Amino acid sequence: MSDSKPEKPITMHPHPLPPVPEGMSKSQWKKVWKKKRFEETKDEFAKIRREKRQKAKETRRAKIQEYLDRGEEVPEDLRRKPRKNQDQKDSGINIILDCAFDDLMNDKEVVSLSTQITRAYSHNKRENHFAKVKVTSFNKRLRTRFEEGLKDAHHDEWKNFEFTEDPTLPTENSVYLTADTDETLEKLEPGTNYIVGGIVDKNRHKLLCYNKARELGIPTKKLPLAEFIKLTGREVLTCTHVIHLMLRYFDNLDWKEAFETVLPQRKLEEAEAAAEAAAKAQSPQAESSEPSSATSEEEPQD
After folding, report:
1. What confidence tier does 166 reach under pLDDT thresholds 50, 70, 90?
2. Strands 174-177, 129-136: pairing kind
3. Annotated region Disordered: where (predicted)?
4. Which of 89, 209, 251, 277 could in theory staple to 197 by disulfide, Cβ–Cβ 3.0 to 4.6 A?
């Protein structure tokens, strides 16, 4: 298969920051200006996102065709699964998304978290095994995002997914998953509550979930990531990846197989190359004067 270059992130031409109004700090004015610019350009961003999704579909089809033309098996990560798995089995585990970190994220990161949750829901209804998932501290901007920006997703009707404002986390039979601990999660135990930190922070808040778990007296463990895949930098996965890996583990009770199918090395290398290209594409001028660039977030999959 021919090598494909990572796509560039969606960006808009930078606009100089207007003079700061009297009585307002530069940082406050920058936030107001970014929000104003976002409102002015959101339709254009939506159009670009649609075009990117269409291009991604065409690229996927082309990759699949290359495998078929060579008479090779299509990799798992390129296959489409049915929108709902009718033969699912209960994994017996409970997954709790601890979303009590709204104040530590910017608007773009809240949007990203909402997308991760919708993708996690999609995996939970398509995989061979499902978990009972609860989203705690469902309030503030995250709740607004679902009730306004994602209202067509009907999150309150999702099967095996519960949303609650209650921030309380169970401490009995619970494990808080965090990359900052030294303890590795060897296997998943039915009847156990696995808590996942619901935060997108680009590594700004290290030890956040670890320290919270310790304060609550909840044991901490990490997925055996380093044993099976190679990542540069800190070993942090998205909420989507964590939940997908846990569900896939139950297929054969095998972490190695779960990692190889959910996060094949080829896919990781492509993602890292794309992230590096995105970092190089951003300039200080664009960051200081332009609203956060839109990302190619997927629409919720019902």
Report:
1. very high
2. unpaired
3. 1-29, 50-89, 270-302
4. 209
Say if residue 132 is in the same domain as residue 253.
yes
H helix intervals, the chain: 26-69, 107-126, 140-144, 208-216, 225-228, 239-252, 255-262, 265-281, 284-289
CA distance 110 to 102: 7
Q: By three-state DSSP, how is residue 73 classified?
A: coil
Active-site annotation, residues: 201
Q: How far apart are CA 164 and CA 280, in angstroms?
A: 39
Q: Are 104 and 114 in contact (CB under 8 A)?
A: no
Identify whether residues 121 and 49 lie together within a single domain: no
113 a known binding residue?
Answer: no
Cα separations in angstroms, 226 against 188, 203, 237: 17, 18, 12
Annotation-wise, does 209 bind a ligand? yes
Q: Kindly state whether residue 11 falls inside one of the protein's structural domains.
A: no
298: closest CA among 13, 74, 37, 57?
Answer: 57
The 3-state DSSP class for residue 247 equals helix
Instruction: Assess contact for 238 and 199: CB atoms under 8 A.
Output: no
pLDDT tens-digit map of 243-282: 999 999 999 999 999 998 898 766 666 666 666 666 666 5
Q: Residue 47: which domain range?
A: 38-80
